[in-house]
Write a structure and sequence with these properties.
Elements: E1 2-11, E2 14-20, E3 25-29, H1 36-48, E4 68-76, E5 79-88, E6 91-96, E7 99-100, H2 104-107, E8 113-116, H3 128-142, H4 144-168, H5 175-214, E9 221-226, H6 237-250, H7 252-258, E10 269-274, E11 277-278, H8 279-282, H9 285-307, E12 312-316, H10 324-334, E13 340-344, H11 349-354, E14 359-364, E15 367-371, E16 377-378, E17 384-385, E18 388-389
Parallel strand pairs: 3-13, 3-14, 8-12, 12-13
Antiparallel strand pairs: 1-2, 1-4, 4-5, 5-6, 6-7, 9-10, 10-11, 14-15, 15-16, 17-18
Length: about 400
């Protein structure tokens, strides 16, 4: 899978831009605040129908305009697939092969991406919320059922928390409805936990080998799903659903007193272990960064295993945050394997020596020019047609 063409209209600081990419490594060069990250963000939004930088879609629309448009031409297996996402005051419109999709869930998954930005290096030492978001965003792209269960869970959780506040304020005494909400929450929650555990098992398989390679086989990396439910080891999905319902009932008095739901996947976490020791607590900064790098690179193979195709890899100024050894391992891992978009102020020595035949773009004030490795301008015209490509 790779993105052949991209057209942006009124997206961030891009007024009307058309680009054609290499299936290998595409390097986006430019100083800060010129539009490198905006271009990467547009690809991420095209794939996931949401931004990794803001929850407000209006911020994605060029100042002074009412809507924005992202069009992409994706090569998958033996065919080419046009994708389009319109952003406006009335929400999003998504099209696959020129056909508007009734639900965004039918659109997500047509193009898979992995984003690796400097903040992802804090995946290990950062907050539990960041690690939960990591699973939800990455796994949600390739597992429609997980995305459905997660959306349903959040809806029931919101209702349940609202009702717990009513019980806490003694505005109602009806616990029958609380039982109904608890049963629904446990049904979706148990499913989410089971699916997360499976995803982490798959991710660990690839991350372990990557981590051993980076550390000259000195450190063994492993994952542990850290649930607020008690004693979940070895439980099936159905057993997890029953266990969660039971433990929710046991928490009623405490939850009513606090007015919120205290257990469930919305409060769970991931533990990263190196040689059986918690790297969040005992690991050095280097070990934490190596763990994050191993996890992000492992995603590439998990997505390939799950979907049959490699995803796109978006590297947003991440090389500047890695030392030479980790830069080398990253670039050697992705070379000739996955279409990559890499942003940087300039090509450093490691990238210049390791990246073979990159396609280079220079970005300034939202204007993109294709250049040679020596900085020479290449002139090329790409034509996009409304709701179609030629």
């Amino acid at each position: 899978m790779f993105l052949k063409k991209l057209h942006l209209k009124n997206f961030r600081n891009y007024e009307d831009t058309s680009l054609e990419f290499s299936p290998g490594i595409n390097v986006l060069l430019g100083q800060n605040a010129q539009g490198k990250t905006n271009l990467l963000e547009s690809i991420y939004v095209l794939a996931t129908a949401r931004s990794h930088r803001t929850a407000n879609d209006h911020e994605l629309i060029r100042f002074g305009n009412n809507d924005a448009d992202i069009m992409g031409f994706v090569h998958r297996r033996a065919d080419d697939l046009p994708l389009e996402l319109e952003l406006g005051k009335r929400g999003k419109k998504a099209r696959v092969n020129h056909l508007e999709q009734a639900k965004l869930s039918q659109y997500i998954g047509q193009l898979n991406v992995i984003l690796f930005a400097p903040e992802d290096l804090s995946l290990v030492k950062g907050s539990p919320n960041g690690r939960r978001r990591f699973i939800d965003m990455e796994f949600g792209q390739i597992a429609p059922r997980y995305l459905h269960d997660l959306t349903s869970y959040r809806g029931v959780l919101k209702q349940r928390n609202r009702y717990l506040k009513l019980l806490s304020a003694r505005k109602t005494n009806d616990r029958v409805y609380l039982d109904v909400l608890s049963e629904q929450l446990a049904s979706f929650g148990g499913s989410i936990i089971a699916q997360r555990q499976k995803f982490l098992d798959d991710l660990e398989k690839y991350a372990q080998e990557l981590h051993l390679s980076i550390t000259q086989r000195q450190e063994k990396l492993s994952f542990e799903y850290d649930s607020k439910l008690k004693n979940i080891a070895g439980y099936s999905e159905q057993e997890l659903q029953q266990l969660m319902y039971q433990q929710l009932q046991e928490q009623y008095e405490k939850e009513i007193f606090q007015g919120t739901t205290l257990i469930g996947p919305h409060r769970d976490d991931i533990k990263f272990l190196i040689n059986d020791k918690n790297v969040q607590t005992y690991g050095s900064q280097g070990q934490q960064r190596t763990t994050a790098l191993s996890v992000k690179l492992a995603e590439i193979d998990v997505m390939k295993e799950q979907t049959g195709e490699y995803p796109l890899l978006l590297l947003d100024d991440v090389l500047s945050e890695l030392d030479g050894q980790r830069q080398t391992h990253l670039l050697k891992t992705i070379q000739n394997k996955v279409q990559t978009f890499l942003t940087a102020p300039a090509m450093n020595d490691v990238a210049r020596n390791l990246i073979k035949e990159p396609k280079i773009f220079t970005i300034k004030n939202g204007n993109v020019a294709e250049t040679t490795a020596k900085g020479e301008l290449l002139l090329k015209t790409i034509t996009f047609y409304p709701h179609g490509y030629k």
